[in-house]
Fold this sequence. Notes:
Helix content is 39%, strand content 12%. The chain is of the alpha/beta class. It folds into 2 domains: 8-261 and 392-473, Amidase signature (AS) domain (Amidase signature (AS) enzymes), CATH 3.90.1300; 300-380, no CATH class. Strands 1-3-2-4-6-5-10-11-9-7-8 form an 11-stranded mixed beta sheet, sandwiched between helices. A hairpin with a 5-residue loop joins strand 10 and strand 11. The model is unreliable at 484-489 (pLDDT under 50).
Amino acid sequence: MTAWEDSVRDTARAVQQGASAVRLVEASLARIEATEPSLHAYLHVRGDGAQAEAAQLEQMGASARAALPLAGVTVAVKDNLVLKDAPTTAGSKILAGYVPPYTATAVARLQAAGAIVVGKTNLDEFAMGSSTEHSAYGPTKNPWDPTRVPGGSSGGSAAAVAAGTVVVALGSDTGGSVRQPAAFCGVVGLKPTYGRVSRYGLLAFASSLDQVGPMGRRVADVAQVFYVMAGRDPHDATSVDGPAGDPTPDAGGSLKGLRVGLVDSQRAAAGPEGQAALDQAARALTDRGAVVSSVDLPHSRYGIAAYYVVAPAEASSNLARYDGVRYGVRGEGRDLAEVYFNTRGEGFGTEVKRRILLGTFALAEGYYDAYYLKALKARTVLAQDYRAAFASVDVLLTPTVPEPAFRLGEKLDDPWAMYQSDVMTVGANLTGLPALSLPWGVTEGGLPTAVQLTAPWLEEARLFSTAAALEASRPHPWTGPGRKGRTGS
Ligand code: GLN
């Protein structure tokens, strides 16, 4: 049995009307137990805590329970978001044994709405990677094909949702880490507008790019979780007000007059299956009354280079706090310098060290103008590209990823190849724009394909309405992994 059919709305309604939240949590835990040996999506499962919260929900007065929009909805949370009294590792050895004394705002808001966190999910160490293979605790496998990666860095969350262990999950997206694994695992993933969701309690990777984002099996699930999480938080000075309105997008709505820009250069960068998915999606939008035209983002080819300077630069500063004194494990040493050296030398993995070195180099005196400042300039021209595009279209349509899920180990020894996974996703982070990945079809080989929608700042509602219409127009009935798929072409 998988929980593939469970939606946020149906689950919450049932629990509001008296269905047993304890049973739902038990079903989730049983599914985790059945799938973990092959997937390894979780780093920590909080069985007792989740069951106790479900029991509390059942004992609540009926009217209080009826007011909870996420009553009994099971959630998996990426292990770089803190949850009080549950271990948080960020996929790193350096945080082994760390138990945070507080809960991230995004998670606390879901809990206050009745959601139940059943576990913390695997990720690339400190969210640096595109495959979860950089986790110090071993990789997660793709539920569609366990010889393949689930994507990353939120690969555990994507696999947890795709395998039906939870209704929804949270990830974080600094350069694509919600959308790329969502695309690889056949689930919906949203990177909200920068600032839309509080970063309080998200372990910082690159603070000017990081956003928390929801993942789910359908657009409405992701929208409903987003509306609960979004909004200003006094603990995050960059946070902005949440959107008002109805969190349930109308799948049957007409798209008459919606202007969609197909980014040709990104279409060309996708493989044949990705291009076929994109063309089908463009046709489906046209059928619904949208007007699809070609647009250009002339500087998007600089996106990867700019991202891989800006993100490591910020990371080199953010990760300075892991010094063996304040958090987690501590290396031995005769003096403080040696303690730092040994803690960081033993505690960080190769990819994290590579980023710290890259970032420190890019910020060093004499190199700052050539690298960091130049990357900031590229970021500005990229933002101008998007602004120019949004002068003539309402939403952009691109692939999410250049290719479907790759094999475990395939890119592990080739950082440059791994970084190319993000070529279609980093643009939204560098510019702060909201973007959503929608599963489209299934390749001949049985792997999910996906398309990406990008909207102007704060226009998540437009992403949801467009994506919901597309979701309803998919050529084949969409089912989860383990069932024979149909090609998307
Ligand atoms: N794959 C990208 C990187 O390695 C993005 C990671 C992310 O979004 N957290 O930096």
